[in-house]
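Example 3.2
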Amino acid sequence: MITEEELAIRRGHAVFRADVERVVRVIAERHRACGALLTRQLMRDILEETLADIGLAARWPAQLIDARLLEITIPPGDDVLTSGDAVAAGDFGKLVARVLVGPNAD
């Protein structure tokens, strides 16, 4: 049985993920509007800006941000990525690809 505390923690994590997704979407849409191609460097830039936005706003504990960061792997280089390459970066890559490439990026 789930306790009230566990339920509150799960809700908090869901709200955190939604906040991260919202910030990523806004940043990626700005890059798409400029005609940017999906590259590894662009994904790293979007990640860095997202973390800065969330961290500077102090909306979330550092542990949540650090845990989210550990889930994301973007290989070095600046190659143009296919949507399949972006999906390999996990949920973050999928989200960025959906915004920059389109809804069929998964």
